[in-house]
From TrEMBL, chain A:
One MF term in the entry's GO annotations: GTPase activity
SMART domains: RAB, RAN, RAS, RHO
Organism whose genome encodes this protein: Stegastes partitus
Keyword GTP-binding: yes
Sorted UniProt keywords: Cytoplasmic vesicle, Endosome, GTP-binding, Lipoprotein, Membrane, Nucleotide-binding, Prenylation
Name of the protein in question: RAB22A, member RAS oncogene family
TrEMBL record, chain B:
This protein's encoding gene: rinl
Provenance organism: Stegastes partitus
Domain VPS9, first and last residues per copy: 509-652
Compositionally biased intervals (Basic and acidic residues): 703-723, 731-741
Any single biological process term in GO: vesicle-mediated transport
InterPro entries assigned: SH2, SH2_dom_sf, VPS9, Vps9-like, VPS9_dom_sf
Protein name, as recorded: Ras and Rab interactor 2
Ranges of Polar residues composition bias in the record: 289-315, 743-755
GO molecular function, one term: guanyl-nucleotide exchange factor activity
Keyword Transferase carried by entry: no
Length: 194, 782
């Protein structure tokens, strides 16, 4: 089974629960054969999607405004970005919109964008209506889910949706990340046809 | 200390002298009459002779009727003055103890085996040390020896042997055993019975039991190999420098180990191979034997690191049982890694993987020895599996590769050697001059050369064959291995020069000045002021000091991969500090890590760190950039950038223009290299292809990637002024690569393009770009 490494970047205001979401996603996948990562800023998890294994390399970013300028370093080369906001903080939703703009301008061209409205367990304190967020996500063709890292709601769904939207590798090409071998690039044979 | 490592131990070892040594087995056989006397020795006689001798002293008594060896009499020690009997079954040509199922083809093998592992015995058999000095020259005298002589053991040795028979950490022996592919089997019953507590106890016994290490032998085959191991190497004739000490040892008058031995050899043992320290009379034989150990892979001078000797592993004896089954060449020898360098580390399976905390200890002091051993305890199962992975040629081919590459680089006239030589000379000639190449340009060229050296290396069929023989590593790991071997021959000679160049370049650019100035502004900031949340902890003063030492070690490494490993250790330690005071369950992500790292950097040598960061950023194998190592390297870079560009009153957006400019440039270069290295073999083809493709508007993902790679190759050394043109090209390409993300993981390059646009790029272009994104999304049917 082909293994594809997918870099996923986490964006969003500080305190919206970016790392908690990833922690939830990764926590049940404990495998003694795989070294755990040293911290929650970078985590990995491999899931099966159809006939492929998707290894998510999840890059967390610091959400503080002062570190904003550093974000391009993190989202470069990402297959997907999960932009997280807090449904109880309107401001975090505005930040999210800025991230979307920035990704459009400077992000990888085919990046899959997922919007996660976190802390949906706190619906009493909700400031961002689900419909508003959903409409916005649709308008930019982004994945949208409301999540709760606390109650493990919709966490896996985010990643499943991302897997679905990652373009399929052409079957014959052997172009998945691990398919090349030193000195014997798989792409070699394909070059002759074009 | 040139050491050849013959497969079966039969090859001459240069420093070992001319006279052929006898194997321990031969030595034992030679004096069999002494320990297995015939008439009139009987059980009573043997008991009388053994009574009061050190534990493990033994005699074999022959059956009076058949005159076959029938009874093994073993002294239980001087204190209890007891002698234990074990029946020897002798059926045809097979010898075995009645209580054991292990069979041996002759008596000497049986004795030798039980001198290494006690199996059913109460203690291991003890073989007098003088036997190791027996050579071809004086072997005739062996047959004259009598049981009394055999048992003659100076009182000092008693202490010695007693120390050695203490149980000690089996952890080490496992690693040791795995070192050259010997298979080790841990008795699972033992684990079930005793858990892993034994791992944490008796750590101090490790050093004394070194002696046993040197003697570990097979009892069933490969005796030629056995012959080369052991203390033979320390005899008077062959060790002119060590004459006085070793002659004493040779005659069996071994001085007692001093009480502080467990700590002293750590210093003494690592340095000298042949010259023993008088304080540690038992260390030299160990070292000597290490040197003569047959490796399954060729080893070059220096491949036996000090750690080899320092962290020798003991032979596990009572109370647990461990069996070894040889596997080809086996004579286990201590790994350069050790209890402090568990196999998982040694495997070097990508710097991406996380680092175990206990591996750090030897860098600083031997003191954490105990602590690390304790930490090992709960990881025993994990470690076992790591060892299991280490078996079967993983370690050996790796060493073999590195050694082979080294040899190739020194082989006059070989293409690789010429290429390495050319690279080193060219690089050393280059410097940083005003108006000339910048530091990062120089590093880019170095990276390109490393990649091309790799291609040259991979052209060697034997290297390909060697790599093909490594079946248990992923491609990425093999990649890493090849990188490391090239670093050793190419990067090592030039690393100091590169540091100087980076220093000059960054000084010219004013980076260091900004770093130092902002350091003054920021250094008083608490972690909260730097953006960290309230509950987050920072390293205490001890940890700060330790991290500063790690930075120093990091600077001393020439291999970017190894530097990254140390960086990961630092990051892990910072994480530990962050969560030290917080309630369990708190998850600290980048929101807190970046401020904490920044806090730590403000207490570090920023100039050196900047140099190392540049070095790593430009020279690290591009395939590693997406992994954990890449993440934390990025974070280090980001943090340094934050410090150097910190301007309290400046709006964040203004900063971002400048920051992005720099980062984008970096990304452009790195993705280029990534692309290059992935397709390095076909680089030229790619470029030509790219030109043709330009108009072809191929929708194939692969073609898109190639195209970019080709164009970027052209522009690698181009002025920055060309960037805008490239940005335009990029835009064009985007429409081409409408399915471009098809192989995200393989061609990250194809996703990095838009960043290369600078703020100056017209809004019209941006509009086009957004349009193209929207269009793509439409294609996906959203």
């Amino acid at each position: 089974m082909a293994l594809r490494e997918l870099k996923v970047c986490l964006l969003g205001d500080t305190g919206v629960g970016k790392s908690s979401i990833v922690w939830r996603f990764v926590e049940d996948s404990f495998d003694p054969n795989i070294n755990p990562t040293i911290g929650a800023s970078f985590m990995t998890k491999t899931v099966q999607y159809q006939n492929e294994l998707h290894k998510f390399l999840i890059w967390d970013t610091a959400g503080q405004e002062r570190f904003r300028a550093l974000a391009p370093m993190y989202y470069r080369g990402s297959a997907a970005a999960i932009i997280v906001y807090d449904i109880t903080k309107e401001e975090s939703f505005q930040t999210l919109k800025n991230w979307v703009k920035e990704l459009r301008q400077h992000g990888p061209p085919n990046i899959v964008v997922a919007i996660a409205g976190n802390k949906c367990d706190l619906s009493d304190a909700r400031e961002v209506p689900e419909k508003d967020a959903k409409d916005y996500a649709d308008s930019i063709h982004a994945i949208f889910v409301e999540t709760s890292a606390k109650n493990a709601i919709n966490i896996n769904e985010v990643f499943i949706e991302i897997s679905k939207r990652i373009p399929v590798v052409e079957a014959a090409g052997g172009t998945s990340g691990k398919a090349f071998k030193l000195g014997r690039q798989a792409s070699e044979s394909r070059r002759t046809c074009c | 200390m040139a050491v050849h490592s013959p497969v079966n131990g039969t090859t001459a070892i240069p420093w070992r002298g001319i006279k052929r040594r006898l194997s321990l087995l031969e030595q034992l056989k030679g004096c069999q009459e002494a320990w297995c006397p015939g008439e009139p020795w009987d059980r009573e006689g043997a008991h009388a002779a053994l009574c009061g001798t050190p534990a493990g002293s033994f005699l074999v008594v022959r059956d009076s009727a058949t005159s076959q060896p029938g009874l093994l009499c073993v002294s239980a020690g001087a204190q209890n003055e007891d002698v234990l009997d074990f029946n020897i079954k002798c059926t045809g040509t097979v010898f075995q103890l009645s209580d054991s199922r292990l069979s041996f083809s002759d008596l000497a093998q049986l004795v030798l085996f039980y001198s290494l592992t006690r199996d059913v015995l109460a203690v291991c058999l003890s073989i007098p040390r003088w036997i190791y000095s027996v050579t071809e020259m004086n072997k005739d005298r062996l047959s004259e020896l009598e049981p009394k002589t055999w048992l003659l053991t100076p009182p000092e040795q008693q202490t010695d042997e007693m120390t050695q028979t203490e149980p000690s950490s089996v952890m080490c022996s496992i690693q040791l055993t795995s070192s050259n592919g010997a298979l080790c089997i841990i008795n699972p019953l033992y684990l079930r019975e005793h858990g892993d507590e034994w791992l944490t106890s008796r750590t101090t016994a490790m050093q004394p039991s070194k002696y046993k290490q040197g003697r570990r032998l097979s009892t069933t085959r490969t005796w030629a190999g056995a012959g080369l191991q052991n203390k033979r190497a320390m005899s008077l004739e062959q060790e002119p420098f060590a004459a006085s000490t070793e002659s004493t040892e040779s005659s069996g008058l071994v001085r007692a180990r001093s009480a502080d031995l467990p700590s002293t050899p750590q210093i003494a043992a690592g340095v000298v191979l042949r010259r023993p320290s008088r304080d540690t009379p038992s260390s030299p034989p160990y070292r000597a034997s290490t040197g003569s150990l047959p490796l399954s892979a060729p080893s070059t001078p220096g491949s036996l690191t000090p750690e080899t000797q320092r962290h020798s592993s003991p032979l596990p004896q009572s109370p647990h049982r461990v069996s070894w089954i040889e596997d080809g060449v086996w004579l286990p020898l201590p790994r350069p890694s050790s209890s402090l360098h568990p196999p998982s580390m040694e495997l070097d399976s990508l710097s991406i993987s996380s680092i175990e905390e206990e591996q750090e200890s030897p860098l600083l002091s031997p003191a954490p020895h105990h602590a690390s051993a304790h930490r090992l305890a709960d990881k025993v199962i994990h470690r076992f599996s790591a060892v299991g992975q280490a078996l079967g040629g993983l370690v050996c081919p790796k060493k073999r590769l590195i050694n082979r590459v080294q040899e190739l680089s020194e082989k006059k006239g070989s293409a690789f050697a010429e290429a390495v030589k050319g690279f080193v000379e060219t690089t050393l000639r280059r410097g940083i001059e005003p108006g000339g190449a910048t530091g990062s340009e120089l590093l880019q060229d170095v990276r390109a050369s490393l990649t091309s050296l790799r291609d040259t290396l991979l052209d060697y069929p034997e290297i390909q064959a060697l790599l093909d023989s490594i079946t248990d590593l992923s491609d990425a790991e093999i990649d890493c291995l090849v990188e490391r071997s090239i670093h050793k021959v190419a990067l090592k000679p030039v690393s100091a020069h590169l540091y100087t160049c980076i220093h000059t370049s960054q000084t010219n650019a004013g980076t260091f000045e900004r770093l130092q100035n902002n350091l003054k502004v920021l250094e008083k900031n608490k972690v909260e002021d730097l953006g960290g949340s309230a509950g987050v902890g920072v390293p205490d003063s001890v940890t700060v000091e330790r991290i500063q030492q790690w930075w120093t070690s990091m600077h001393e490494e020439f291999s970017p991969n190894k530097k990254v490993k140390i960086l990961l250790k630092v990051c892990k330690r910072i994480y530990n500090s962050m969560s030290a005071n917080s309630s369990s369950g708190t998850v600290f992500g980048a929101d807190d890590f970046l401020p904490c790292l920044t806090w730590m950097l403000l207490r570090s040598d920023l100039v050196t760190l900047q140099i190392d960061t540049d070095y790593m950023m430009e020279l690290l194998d591009p395939t590693q950039l997406q992994g954990e190592g890449g993440y934390y390297l990025t974070t280090l870079y980001a943090s340094l950038y934050y410090i150097s560009s910190f301007r309290p009153r400046l709006a964040a957006r203004q900063l971002s223009v400048e920051a992005q400019h720099s980062l984008n440039q970096w990304h452009r270069r790195r993705t280029l290299h990534c692309d290059q290295s992935r397709r390095s073999k076909n680089r030229r083809t790619i470029r030509r292809q790219a030109c043709r493709d330009k108009g072809a508007q191929s929708s194939e993902t692969e073609a898109g990637g190639k195209q970019e790679g080709g164009k970027e190759s052209d522009s690698v050394n181009a002025d920055e002024s060309r960037q805008q043109t490239e940005a335009l090209q990029t835009l064009r390409e985007e429409t081409v690569t409408d399915k471009g993300a098809g192989d995200q993981s393989q061609t990250p390059a194809s996703h990095g393009q838009p960043e290369t646009q600078e703020e100056e790029v017209t809004s019209k272009q941006e509009d086009r770009q957004s349009f193209s994104i929207a269009e793509e999304e439409d294609h996906r049917g959203l």
